[in-house]
Amino acid sequence: MKKSTLLIHGMWAVLAVGAFFVGFASHSKVSATGPEESAEETGSRPRAVTSRSSYTSWTSGPGDSASAFRQEVAAVLADTNEERRKERAAVLMGELTPQVWDGLTNEMVPELLRLFEEADFSDTWHKQKSFFGAWARVNPEAAFAYVTDPENKFGGDAWGRPAVVQEWAKSDLPSLQSAILGLEQNYSRYSMAHKLMAHLTKTDLDAAIAFSEEYEKSNSYGTHAGAGTLAKRLLDQRGVGSVQNWLDGIDFGEATTGYKKEALEHLAYWRTGDGMSELLAARENQSFVDSELLGKIANWGAGNEGAEDRAKGKLDWLVKLPPEVGSQRQTIGEQFENYLKADFKAAGEWLTGQELGPAHD
Question: What is the pTM of this model?
């Protein structure tokens, strides 16, 4: 009985060892052929699989990381299976690390642009800012030329252009300004000027004022770059007096009035309380604060105060303005007339509820 038991246990041991070695051999075969080849052998759909063997070297330094990644990109782009190539490109997008950007070279740019083209936008949009910022650190002129060329697929949007502007402004602001002013395409010129103004109003208000003057004197696009943002930053950081001094010093020829109007209208998007009333009442501003501008600003005033009835809210905001605002009466009259046409009963109720004064004449 004891011999039989030992014999059975011995047979099970032999079978277990044999199964282990069969399994090991099978695993070695799959590893040698690679996951993609295994999928093809079994007839399954090819999956987006990229080798991680080279990723282990990415932590050694920016240069090594970039070199390793470049090899990975070349392997993906060489894949002749279009569906698999796109999937592998999407996976590789997730491997774009700060080390890769730190080690970026001019030679890597064409391959990375191709990688962006292969992957879907949903896989690339959050990487574009880092890429264009890194490119601008290495070769700002080339990055600038790319993002301002309307024929190019990437960069001319909310990610590429701001990144190039911010990086180039840090290293050589005069060259960046010259490049923007030298653009022939009106929209690209305006777009880059607007993004530079957004950057400068956060970092150097005096530089923003100087560039604004230089840009606007040669602006043929019609829309002004960053006028409201500049007004807001001045009001927040230096007060009403600084905004008024800035407005007084603006002289852009025929564009002067339009620029000042746009500055106050856009400022009203953020500020219709303290500061705005003083600017609207300033004697120096009465020449351009007309009923059209005041009506637009009143619209923001009603919204900023949370008025449920926007027409009523505009009138409530207008009657609170100081009497020095020369176009106040005309604007109230125009807005009340519009209110009557839209809701006669509500307009009448608003009027009867007012303590009549000069503004209601």
Answer: 0.74
